[in-house]
Amino acid sequence: SLSLSLFLGLHAGSLEERRAFLKALTAWSRAGAEPETTRSPARSGAGAVAATTRSEAMSTALAEGGSPVALTEAQLSLQLQLVESAEIGQDLHLMLLARNLEAARKEVKLSRSTQPVLHDGTPRPPFWQDTHYLSLDPREEKRISWRIAYGQYGRHLGEDQQVQVIALAEENTSWQKMLAEKTVTLARPSLTLSVLAPVVVNQPFPLHVEFINPLPQPVDGCVLVVEGGGLVKGQASIELGSLQAQEKGGIKFQLTPYKSGPRQLHATLTSSLFPPIKGWKQLEVAPHPGGN
C-alpha cells in the first residue's frame, strides 16, 4: 500500500538514501503522480529498500540523490529539539517547531516516529509513531511537545544508547514535504569512586563506590564488578541484590594492590534491566616502605 511504501522508504537505509527518497517523492508530486515503492530483490536487511517507478521524474531524482526539499521550496520550517537532557530511565521530552513561511494558511499532515539506531548508524523499525493534522496561519509558528516513557523505548536500545526522531510534514494541497531528523544519545549515570586512605603496594586500602538505579522501577540481581591491573587479580564481584526505583546507594570495601606505580581502577554496575553503569579512578600506588 502507499502508506506502507512511505513508511519503508523513510525508515530504512542510510540518511542519504532517505533524503533521496524524499526528493523523489517531491518530484512525483510535481509530476502529479503517486509514488510506488517496492523492496529490491537484490538486497536484504534494513537498508534493502529501493524506489521503483513508472516515472522518469522519480528515477532521475533518485539518481541525483542529495538533500531533501529546500525550505524555500517547501515554505515550511521544521526543527526538532530536546526539551530536557536525555538520560537512561527518564522520559524523552521532545519538541517540534513548525513554522509556516508563506503568507497563506496551510493544512499539514504531520507524521512523527522514533526508532533505535545501531552502532553503525543503521536505523531499526520504529517503536513509537503518531500522525495528526496541523493548521498553520500565515507566518505562524507552532510548538508540538510530547514525551516517550522509558517503558516504551528502554528495551529497544542498542549498545550506543541512541534513538532517531523523525518528523515528516506533508502539505495536503501541494504534496510538498519537509523532513526533520534528530539523533539522540541517552546519557547514563556514572559510578563515583572514592579512595579513603593512601594506596601502598601489598597493603589493604578502603574504597567507597556510590551508585544509583536510574530506572523508575525496582531492579534485582545487581552486581558490582571491580578490576584493574596491579590492583585486582582478575575481577572482584560484589552482589548488591535489589535496588528500589531510582535508589541511591554506596558500598565500602578493601583492595590490596600488588604492583606499584600508576594504576587505573574500573568499576561496573550491572543489571538485567539497565545498561552497564561504569566509573574509573586513576591511582598512584606507592612502593612498600620496606621495598618490593
Structural account:
The protein is an alpha+beta fold and 292 residues long. It contains five helices and 16 strands. Residues 1-9 and 24-73 have low confidence and may be disordered.
Give a quick precis of the structure:
This protein has 292 residues and is an alpha+beta fold. Helix content is 15%, strand content 42%.
Mean pLDDT score: 79
Q: Rg from C-alpha positions?
A: 26 Å
Distance between the termini: 76 Å
Report on the biggest sheet.
4 strands, antiparallel
Enumerate how many helices there are, as a single number: 5
Please give the order of strands in the largest beta sheet.
6-5-8-9
> Percent range for helical residues?
10-25%
Given the C-alpha coordinates, what overall shape results? elongated
Strand fraction equals 35-45%
Low-confidence stretches: 1-9, 24-73
Give a count of the beta strands, DSSP E runs of length 2 or more: 16
- Structural class estimated from helices and strands: alpha+beta
- Encode the helix/strand succession as letters: HHEEHHEEEEEHEEEEEEEEE
